[in-house]
Amino acid sequence: MRRARMRSPLASEEGSAPAEFVLVGALLLVLVLGVVQLGLDLLVRNTVLDAASEGARWASLAGNDLADGVGRTRELIDVSIGPAYAQDVTARRSEILGRPAAVVTVRAPLPVVGLLGLGRDLEVSGHAVLEADGW
User: Fold this and answer.
1) How far apart (Å, rounded) are the C-alpha atoms in residues 85 and 67?
2) How many domains does the chain have?
3) pTM to 2 decimals?
4) Which residues contact 49 (CB under 8 A, 6 or more apart)?
């Protein structure tokens, strides 16, 4: 006589695909959003760094001063990523290898969620040697 197998309702894998899809999909979504946020952080950092460098070069031109460099830096940041990132821009004179130089420093929020950032976590500086008459 054959014995009938009793199958437990918990042993069945029927209906497990939707649950697995939700779990794996949520994990992949978090991973993709993390990579996108990292890319956005790098975009903001590189844009602010480029604007600071361009502002320093602008301030170092003959006939310009540090205020011109600060204005140019703010203008580039405003156009590129928004005025919230151009709030704290400073310029000062310094020396690079014994030569007078302009240094433009930008302190900006580092984006945490989208473009929303907290505090002034990102600080970058751009440097340029001052032009001199007769060079």
Assistant:
1) 18
2) 1
3) 0.78
4) 106, 124, 126
Is 7 contained in some domain? no
Report the SS3 class of residue 95: strand
> CA 40, CA 117: separation in Å to the nearest integer?
12
Lowest mean per-residue pLDDT among 24-28, 57-61, 119-123, 126-130: 119-123
pLDDT given at position 69: 95
What is the torsional sign of CA 82, 124, 122, 92? negative
The predicted-structure confidence for 112-123, as pLDDT tens digits, reads as follows: 887 777 766 899
Nearest to 69 by CA among 46, 87, 92: 92
Alpha helices in 1-135 (DSSP H): 16-60, 66-80
Looking at the DSSP bridge assignments, the partners of residue 90 are 105
- Positive/negative CA dihedral, 125, 126, 127, 133: negative
Q: Which residues pair with 99 in a beta bridge?
A: 96
In a domain, 61, yes or no: yes
Query: What integer is the mean pLDDT of 40-51?
Result: 94
pLDDT score, position 134:
38
- Domain containing 117: what range? 19-129
Tell me, yes or no, whether 94 lies in a domain: yes
